[in-house]
């Protein structure tokens, strides 16, 4: 669904404070409260807005120690991601295109390694203790998507990436990647 400047401004205001009244948002974007409400409903129905959340200061809650865990080359990325997404203490799960899975979470300070081991099993992992975490949602650049280096279609989670001579290229499908690599090799000769 195409978004205009007003949609992005509304999203930015909601990202900063999801409880901000629609009438206040309307004052900023020069719309009525009901018009803002209609736009927010449209954004929710289209899936642009997933939901509204509360951001907790875990340090104030004294909710254990924060960790950043990196699991490189897991056997089943999707299964690991699903397992982590529903696990107690896991706050965010990030999967990169190269199959690396990173997650943040909190657990008792004296039990970090066994907590992580229980979550990831026999997978190889690294743990970093976090001093602080700042999460600032932003819609900057929200109007842009990664384009396939071969055909310019939008690259989604099913896409592929390769690194050639220090540059990363993204593709919408394996066919585009193969055509690009073939042409790249031919031109490199």
Automatic annotation (TrEMBL):
**Which molecular function GO terms apply here?**
sequence-specific DNA binding
> SUPFAM superfamilies, from UniProt?
Winged helix' DNA-binding domain (SSF46785)
Q: Name one Pfam family in it.
A: HTH_AsnC-type
Which GO cellular component terms, listed alphabetically, does the Swiss-Prot or TrEMBL entry include?
A: cytosol
Q: Would I find Repeat among this entry's keywords?
A: no
Q: Which GO terms describe its biological process?
A: response to amino acid
Question: Known InterPro entries for this protein?
Answer: ArsR-like_HTH (IPR011991), AsnC-type_HTH_dom (IPR000485), TRASH_dom (IPR011017), TRASH_HVO_1752 (IPR056526), Tscrpt_reg_AsnC-like (IPR019888), WH-like_DNA-bd_sf (IPR036388), WH_DNA-bd_sf (IPR036390)
Q: Which SMART domains match?
A: HTH_ASNC, TRASH
The identity of this protein, by name, is AsnC family transcriptional regulator
Q: Kindly state which keywords UniProt assigns to this record, in alphabetical order.
A: DNA-binding, Transcription, Transcription regulation
- Annotated HTH asnC-type domain ranges read 3-66
């Amino acid at each position: 669904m195409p978004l205009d400047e007003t949609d992005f401004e509304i999203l930015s205001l909601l990202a900063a404070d999801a409880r901000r009244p629609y009438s206040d948002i309307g004052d900023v974007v020069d719309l009525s409260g009901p018009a803002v409400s209609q736009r927010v409903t449209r954004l929710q129905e289209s899936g642009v807005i997933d939901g509204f959340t509360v951001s907790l200061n875990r340090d104030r809650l004294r909710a254990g120690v924060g960790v950043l865990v990196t699991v490189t080359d897991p056997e089943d990325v999707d299964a690991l991601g699903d397992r982590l997404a529903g696990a107690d203490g896991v706050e965010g799960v990030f999967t990169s295109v190269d199959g690396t899975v990173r997650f943040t979470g909190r657990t008792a300070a004296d039990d970090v390694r066994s907590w992580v081991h229980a979550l990831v099993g026999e997978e190889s992992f690294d743990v970093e203790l976090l001093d602080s975490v700042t999460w600032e949602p932003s819609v900057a650049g929200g109007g842009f998507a990664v384009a396939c280096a071969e055909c310019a279609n939008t690259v989604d989670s099913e896409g592929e990436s390769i690194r050639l001579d220090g540059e990363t290229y993204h593709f919408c499908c394996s066919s585009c990647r193969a055509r690009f690599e073939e042409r790249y090799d031919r031109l490199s000769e």
